[in-house]
Amino acid sequence: MTTSFTTTSGAYYTVSFYLSGNPDAGNPLKIVNVGINNVFSNTFDFTTGSNTEQLMNYVLESFTFEATGTTTTLSFQSGDSSSSDWGPVIGGVAVSSTPEPGSLLLFGTGLVGCLGAIRRKFAK
Question: 2-98: which CATH topology?
Fold first, then answer.
């Protein structure tokens, strides 16, 4: 499964999705490889056994990436054998922008400085 969406080069994004596995047959270990621009560097797994068709026991998974262009392609690929019809199940896929780590550090430093100034003001 593949989709493309607009991004800002250099910006950080978080991908989140729910993962389960088809409980009916096949290897109980279900693997999904997640790729950004056809680079599959994120692997997630789910072991069936406690889930059923009625109660899939989805687990929330997520990862963060830095966009390298104005369009990003997100791909999900089963890690099961190509002849298997009983692989991983995903749902609720969402992509959201994430503040870059440098911005968070700058914000945190500024916040500490403001709290220090307020503390000095009230200490007088």
Answer: Jelly Rolls (2.60.120)
